[in-house]
Amino acid sequence: MTMSRPSGQMDLSIIIINWNSKGYLRECLRSVLAGTCGLKLEILVIDNASYDGSAQMVAEDFPGVSFIQSDRNLGFSGGNNQAARQAIGELLLFLNPDTIIEGDALAMLVQTLRRLPEGGSAGARLLNIDRTLQTSCVQSFPTILNQVLGCDLLYRWFPRSKLWGRAALFEDSEEPRPVEALSGACLMVKREVFDRVGGFDEHYFMYSEDTDLCFKIYQAGFKSYFVPAALVVHHGGGSSQKARSTFSNVMLRESVYRFMRLHQGRVAAVSFRALIGISALIRLPLAIIIWLFQRGIGSETDAPVRKWFSILRWSCGMEAWASKQ
Hints:
The chain is α/β, with parallel strands linked by helices. 45% of the residues lie in helices and 19% in strands. It contains 13 helices and eleven strands. The termini are far apart.
C-alpha cells in the first residue's frame, strides 16, 4: 500500500504499556515491525514498574525501540499520557502488549485518519486467538439503560441494537464506519486531537479510559471510526471477561459511575448506582440457585454469587476499597 506523508514528519508513534507482559510484548513488537508498510514510525514501550525483564529483552532484540522505565504503576491513563508527551508522531497508536498486528492493519488505520478530516480516532477489528470476533472492539457510550440491560443473552438476541453500539461489526462492507467508542487495546488518535481534548483522564483507576477519551473526541466535534479491514489479534479480550475477578467486576461499574458523574451529572450517576443495586438483588438469588444446582451435579463454582454479592455491596457503598484504590 502506497502512503503519502508530510515531508520530514514522523507518521506514527506507537505506545505500548507493559506490566508483566514480557512474552506477549516480544510477539507484539515483532508483528509491529513486520507490518510497518513503509510508514515512518517510532515505538515507545513504557513499563509500569513491573521490572519483568522487558527492558533487557527490548534492548537486545529491538534496539530501535524506546523503553521508558517508570518507578511506579501509573495505570493505563497515566502511562499512556507520559509516553505521549515524549512521542513525536503525527498520529498516536495506543496498543496493548497482548496484541498481534496482521498484514497492513497499521497502514489502513493511518490512511483512514488521513483521508477523513472529521476523524479523530480509529480502531481495528479485534480477534480472539481462535479468530472469532471480539465484540468489545466497538462500544456505545454508557447510559443507564444499556448498562442495566446489558447481558450476554440480550447481546445475542439483539446484536444490532443501538443500545450496544455494535451494529458496525455486522455490516458487510469493509469501509470505515463511524461508531461511538473504540477499544483501547488498539486505538489510533490524531495527535492534535489528543492534545486538544487533554489526553486520557488519569482519575480513572481502571476501565472506561478509552470510552472517556472517545467521548471527549466526540464532544470536540470529531468522529471515531471502526476499520473492519484492519485486523489485530488480541489475546486478552476473549477470556478475560469470563475470568474477571470480583475486584475487576466492581471496578468496571465504578468506572462507569465515574464516567456518568463526569459527563452526565450526579443524578444520572446516582440513578445508575441504584439500578445496578436492584439488578444485583434480582440476579443474586438466581445465581445462588444455579450454584446449588451445580453443586448437586458435581460442578461447583460460586463465582457468579461472589460477583453479584460484591456488586450489591458496591451499590450500597459498602465496597469502600473500590473507590479508593
